[in-house]
Amino acid sequence: MGGRREEILEVALAIADERGLDGVSMRAVAERVGVTPMALYRHVGGKAELLDAMVGHLLAALLPPDQDRQETQRWDERLAALARAVRTMVRRHPWAAPLLFSRPAVTPDAVRTVDVIYDALIEAGVPDREVPRLERLLSTFVIGFAASEVSGRFTSGDPDPRGHRGSLPEGDFPAHARLKPWLRLPDDLATEFEADLDDVLRLIEAAAGRR
Does domain 1-45 have CATH number 1.20.1290.10? Predict the structure, then answer.
């Protein structure tokens, strides 16, 4: 992607940062670029194509520029690095999570990133038939965790609403009552993310027949 099409994509990303994903429209992008909406269609076939290009841009930016270094890493190191990059990207661009959850990877840039994940899973020894499923599992966990952080689902209140659930009338929610000391969110969600990621990687090993 180059020239005017690249400019259009950069403008769309900037608008999403300013207004959220709902603020991205062909009209809004055209106004920022300085052309009519109809002129925009000569470079981007429509909003669906524009959103697909945004997905491609986000996913392509996750890959390290030093491909030689990546090829020397183990499969789990590559997946872990990619997972951390996704979390960082969603925390920087909160609108990215709903976009990634709503659109499949279809552009060459987007597909190339998914291919890196497939390749790591194959290297791990995962049977071919299981590779797409485990890619979906991994990506859903990573994007979902980051989305929960930026959306407020993983934000502690004062008092923490999760801890409060353990104080509801005893007997109605016995498991909550038992787990009350453990219901509050941890102060360090990064540590929890790493523990969850490690669990997912161990699951991948199990799927590959490794224990």
Answer: no
